[in-house]
């Protein structure tokens, strides 16, 4: 189990490295804080200059504090996942993976981004499901001598004949 976990963590670190190599140096895996709006320019005084310098220093400190490495994010994820597991098992909480990632996106932003990518379920359409069903019917054991090209052509023609018959029935109405 530990070996699988370390292998998976290495793969995640590699994905992170690949994504960071493809970006500008200005982009990092930080939790972005919204930039504060600048007040209207007035006569610059030494107090105003001091406050502006303090604000910019404070925002850069916050940004540095909020950025974390992928290793730190993995450690935070392990602790969050353990806490979630305890709540599910001991307290009867209903498991909800999407809620987990939504509530922890600020703590583990890169891992949340990966979760968003890999937890997405692609949708399919009824026509494509119908075509695969027809291919399964045509490629059954009794028709094992059909070549792949003939099978493909048969599925295509069957799909086109069904579409044409549906179009003609709509026109009659």
TrEMBL record:
Residues 28-65 have a biased composition (Polar residues). It comes from Didymodactylos carnosus. Signal peptide: none annotated. InterPro entries: HATC_C_dom, RNaseH-like_sf. It comes from the Eukaryota. This is HAT C-terminal dimerisation domain-containing protein. Pfam families: Dimer_Tnp_hAT. One of its GO terms (molecular function) is protein dimerization activity.
